[in-house]
Amino acid sequence: MNPLLHAALLTRLAIATPARGLRLKRLAAESCVPVCALFYHRIADSVPNDWTLSRKQFRKHVDYCVKHLEVVDLAEVQRRVRDRDSKDRAVTFTFDDGYRDNFDFAIPLLIERGVPCTYFVTTSHIRDQIAFPHDEQAGRPLAANTVAQLREMSDAGIEIGCHTRHHVDFNKVRDRKTIRAEIIDAKYELEQMIGREVRYFAFPYGLPEQLRQAAIEAVAEAGFLGFCSAYGGYNLVGRDSFHIRRFHGDREFSRLKNWLTLDPRKIKREPDVTYRLPAINSRLGADGEPETGEAAAASFAGLAIGSEIDA
User: Which of 162, 274, 277, 163 is nearest to 216 (CA)?
Assistant: First the structure.
């Protein structure tokens, strides 16, 4: 980031902080503090790229979250949203893809600090030990986790989640058989690998265009407790808890802190994602249809007080 822009961002964040504190008190009194969900891909000091954070950067993220927020798992994120019971800032950590480098530092750090984490992997890359297409295209193939590593992480308390078989883009897949194979069959394969139930699914790319009705129906049919997107958003009480909204663990710490201190402008820019769930999964609720959460979003955005940063 440009040094002048960085300095301006820090100044505006400092100005906004008191107003955010007042807003947080009001939200806490109503038990409707938004819940944050972070996602990462790879933590390593080698082969820097757009989806890799250094060990130093990641440790700083963990230290800040442990000190200033409650660290919770995905089930607790859903509970707070579903039960309208969120009295303080909270965050959960997630990873996508399944890079072997994470096994050397990031995951041991989270286990050591007692930080809950859900680790989403693509089964074909784990099983066949092949590099991810985006790394191949960049000319720097990187190793995926092994099955033994997943089992070891799972035994240590890391929740292993499903990220499809082949990291497919559901905006480009229309064939129902392929959709089911990438979601339902992938869940079964992953459960066989780790010897445990796989409870959560994360959409590759995770943008609104990937969150297609047919794919979400397959997620419900598979028996997942919920799915994660990755386009940037808060989990507001009153929304459906089946959809867990995440934002990236930004390498620019001021931008990460802006998200974690709850910026109402993020709500105003969040895209609208609507869908209907079939009443297949008994864990989805009475009618299987999530709430839109429009009232919750309006309530949070309406609590804007004073100056805010636009980052």
Answer: 277
Whether the predicted pLDDT of 284 surpasses 70: no
Instruction: Specify the 3-state DSSP secondary structure of 159.
Output: strand
**CATH-assigned architecture of domain 31-301:** Alpha-Beta Barrel (3.20)
Listed by start position, the domains of the chain span: 31-301
> pTM score, two decimals?
0.88
Q: What is the pLDDT of residue 294?
A: 52
The H or E element containing residue 82 is helix 74-83
Q: Rounded to 5 degrees, what are φ and ψ at 299?
A: -65, -45
Least confident range from 74-78, 135-139, 180-184: namely 135-139
Pairing of strands 200-202, 226-228: parallel
Spatial contact of 121 and 97, defined as CB atoms under 8 Å apart: yes
The DSSP code sequence of 182-245 is IIIIHHHHHHHHHTS---EEE-SS--GGG--HHHHHHHHHHT-SEEE--S---B-TTS-SSEE-
Q: How far apart are CA 294 and CA 33, in angstroms?
A: 15
DSSP letters spanning 103-151: GTTHHHHHHHHT--EEEEE-HHHHHHT---HHHHHTT---PBPPHHHHH
Q: How many CA atoms lie within 13 A of 165 on its CB side?
A: 11
pLDDT in tens, 110-127: 999 999 999 999 999 999
| Average pLDDT in the chain | 89
